[in-house]
Protein: Major facilitator superfamily (MFS) profile domain-containing protein
Amino acid sequence: MGSKALNPHYEISRLQTGTPSSFKVQSEASIPIALGIPGLQPAVEDSGEDASITETDKQRRLQTRIDWMILPPLTICYFLLFTNRMNVQLIYSGDKRYDLDSNKYAIIQFLFSLTYALPEPVWNVLLRRLGPRIWLAPALLLSGFLSVFCAVAKNWQGLAAIRFFIGLPLGALFPGCMYYITCWYPRRKLGRPVAIFYAGGAMGSSLANLLNSALVKITAGGRVGSDWVCIIWGLVTFASAIVVFFFIPDFPDEDDKVLRSVAEHEMFKRWYVATDSTRNISEHYRRHAWKQVFTDMKTLLFILVRMSTVVARDGLTQRQRENASALAVKLFTNPSDTTKNLLFVPPAFLAVITTIYIGILSDKTSQRGYYIMVTSWFSITAFIIFVSSENVTLQYVAGFLGSIGTWAGGAISWVWMANNVEGLFKRAIMIGVNVGAGNLIGGFTIPATVTMPKKVGNYRMIGSAYFLGLSCLHFAAIVLTRWYLSNQNREKQHQLQQGIRDQGDPNNTVEEDKGDKRYFVPISTVPYLCDHG
Structure:
């Protein structure tokens, strides 16, 4: 682009240290050229607005527009991801054509996990380079196409092959959506949008169960119900891809749907960057970002934090389904599948409410780590009950506690990680690595713990004990990560007191008051300030 960037790796200059009022706007004639965004005009774009509207009011309106144009399509993507992932569970539980036993089911899930998890860091780099419309929409399109093909598989080997290939496009959705959110919201306001997006997955899993219980009864065209589930959700996914392509905005540096004028682009930068000069909205790709990710101790720490909670969450979801069915049998005579699935909704609804509420609170206090510590004890308590009690009602109630721990804590742990990784490509890779690690381990272990042959004594207790161990590991990883970040901050504060502010790049400076507590500069060779909260 035409502007003279402070850092040769960045296409758009970042703010210098100071308050938003210190931002220097270029001349009217040079701004559209510098931004390189077609269709933006320098002429009086603010004319006609009420002069009494303050900068804060304008930013609030802009944030509302961002919310409505970013979060709905991403939540739809997450919902459809759940529906297409769950299809094979319906086939395993109700379709007798494939003669799926626990071993065959585990093989199918293992193959799916390979293609679903391993490429996720690469997918995020491609998302950053190609843009969300060019990447997310085709991923949805291909996912829908392959989901329909699940209905025409002739045997379990054919089903395994289709699930192997469907993992590729599905794996691009969650890490891509999560990364995309971090590019539109500043650190100090990231908790709420991530929580809304993440809560969509909790409600999506329960709604998908309800809808599938109705769809599975369709037997038209000589096909069984599980075929129609694959076909209908595949077609819905296919159609949603078209909507996403035309609706979802580009990244902020190239967008003209949300940010409709030069003035709004400048206002967005003031809102997004604020007083944090380490934030940027555009960056050239450098392969060095991969080395930064895999040599950063925080990568391992956040893998432990994320992996331990996401695997426990998926295991909890399976336990909740089993407990809902058992409670329905206890309360009703010959309960229908719809009744069983309705009992699965309340824990998911609680997960939605608590996830969003805690996300908002974490933004106000900027203390992510403490919230994750507290919620982790809900998970630990839930799995202790699963291991120690056979009472159906008590286990059903324990599912509510587990929903708070795994869903609410899981959402905030994403915010915590994203707030401690700067550099657009480094953050993209880090998110992909974390998602991939959790999905890979979950794909290898959950099928074994959930579908373990019943000839093994108390197989449900063994699986619950495994998830209990992961929940305890989750708490230990939180404590260790917070200690590490706090220790880093003490060293950096000492350097600041010694007058050392240069972080290895003459254009990157450290500030004492960041938007989300203390933070760091990722491209530095000298320690930086972290969001240890």
In short: The chain has one domain: 66-255+288-492.
